[in-house]
Write the structure tokens for this entry.
Amino acid sequence: MRASTDPAGPPVPPEPPPDPPSGRMVTWLGRFGPVAVGYAVFQALVGLLPDALFGDTARYSLAVVSGLGTGISAWLAAALLRARGASGDGHTGGPDGVPSPRRPLPGAAPSPSPTAPGAPGPLPGLSAATYATLVERLTVFDDPPHGRLTGWPHALDEQPEPVRPTPTGTAYGLHIALELGMPDGRLRTSELVETLWRLRLPEGGWAARSQGTVGRPEVTALVLGALARAGADSRLLATEAARCTERFTRELEPAGAELTHVVTTVLRGLLRAAPGSPALPVLRDALVDGAVTDPARGHRRCWGSRLTPPRGRTVAPSAVHTAQAVVALDRAARVLGEDANARATREEGIRWLLSCPGPAHDGCEDLESGHETVRRPHPVDASRSEVLAVRHFSAAWVVRALLTPDAPAVAADEDREAVWQEMLAGSAASVWRQQDNGIWTWDGDDLAYPLWMTYQGLSALRAHAVWMYQPGG
């Protein structure tokens, strides 16, 4: 994998306008400190007030009160001016070139990027670099059982080449290509869609490379979602979706049915591929019922890695799983509608995310990426286990959760718009930092350039950019 530097550097914020004369005067007074200003007023009044004003005690008391009031007022006014200058009531740039929005009034449109007039932001250059790498790493592989396969393996740095395309890598590559709008014919949707159908298992469904010959619900839903987004035949999608949901029960799939990651992945994929599936309300209700209460954050409801607690243990709250649940429930609400309990639980998840105690929201604990293991009995050898390692790009999921349509209103209800703005800008900055020339990197692993991470990072930044867009700016 070649490493290079994105030529589109971060925008340079303009110099703040000078303070008006009144602001300069207050700031000048504030530099002397409230004690000095108050003492000056006290001395002036002692000398000006007449001696006959109810005696020395009254005269000195009036001077002291006036001096204290003036000193406190000067301190507050100077502090307000400093705070306004630091927060940037004008347009400021966020960390690492990710534009930070202004803090608008509730319901107001966000401000545009602080770039110079006519100059593009960094996202177009990043998107072009992503597409170029996707084209460069595209694999065409002649596979005797399946025919000609066109797609990608799980990661972009797999060796030796050519590497046989996988359902997971090709599905995420197709998602990326569709996210970028397929600007030319070097990537063809029809070839990628045909490859995914050819990789379908004989008994239906799809599985990850490490999962063997049995279709697994999370991979099947991922592939079906990509196929649906690319416009695949709805009848074929409905047939595969029905097979997926028939197998995805607590009796047949106890491990997956207990995991938040698996349930949310299946729910999101089926909402795209089979929005009329009768399994969707069941999955949504299971997700709502699996929320836990976190005493550390005001007893708000959130999610952990599991929807049912292990025997004798509790489920630890998790930012990435809470964000995944919020996104899945938001999409389900738009397709299925929602009752009061589902809505309240989803909004509690947003409030829980907004309650992050971290001092800096571009690198707080909630944004730290993590991993989990999906362990199932081996489909052939019962003495062994089938193990799937799952990694989570937490910052990207938090961005998507904070950009769900109800999130700003939830923040406004608790007078936390500023916290929402800060967390959104910080999590977007964290997403930005983890890419190099449009490709996202997972540190500390042999396969350091997973396609799923590039898709999640790119889609999160594009969603953030769409939210920030202001026509006529």
